Amino acid sequence: MYIQFYDRGTPAGKVFFAKLEETCSRLQIEDRPEYITDMYRVINQGIQAKSVLMINNQPVFIDKFPGQSELEAILTEHQDQTV
User: Fold this and answer.
1) pLDDT digits (tens, 9 = 90+) for 3-37
2) Which residues lie closer than 8 Å to 34 by C-beta, 6 or more apart?
3) Is the pLDDT of residue 62 over 80?
4) CA-CA distances (angstroms) from residue 52 to 28, 71, 83?
5) How many whole angstroms separate alpha carbon 6 and alpha carbon 64?
6) Which helix (H) or strand (E) holds 71?
7) Distance from C-alpha of 69 to C-alpha of 74, rounded to nearest angstrom
8) Sign of CA dihedral 19, 23, 26, 30
9) Which residues pair with 72 in a beta bridge?
């Protein structure tokens, strides 16, 4: 599973990424998420946002920091699809 978190370096984004890393570790997702501050790729896809969570090159959350249960659910769903 390919997880990328695009963020402009916001404090809330950094906190969310730490939660994302912890959740991936707890769910035993082998591939570590990436934290990317260069918004070029998402802008090229026509997405104007401060933060974007992408899984397998698809935007999952745009300008939203999901709660723990929602984050776990979406990661588990995508993990099941890649198995």
Assistant:
1) 999 999 999 999 999 999 999 999 999 889 999 99
2) 3, 4, 5
3) yes
4) 22, 13, 24
5) 12
6) helix 68-82
7) 9
8) negative
9) none
18-27, long-range: CB within 8 Å, 24+ apart, which pairs?
19/68, 19/71, 20/53, 20/71, 23/68, 23/71, 23/72, 23/75, 24/75, 27/72, 27/75, 27/76, 27/79
pTM value surpassing 0.85: yes
The phi, psi pair for 55, rounded to 5°, reads: -125, 125
Give the type of residue at 48. Answer: Q
pLDDT of 80 above 90: no
What does the block give as tokens for 38?
A: 């260069």
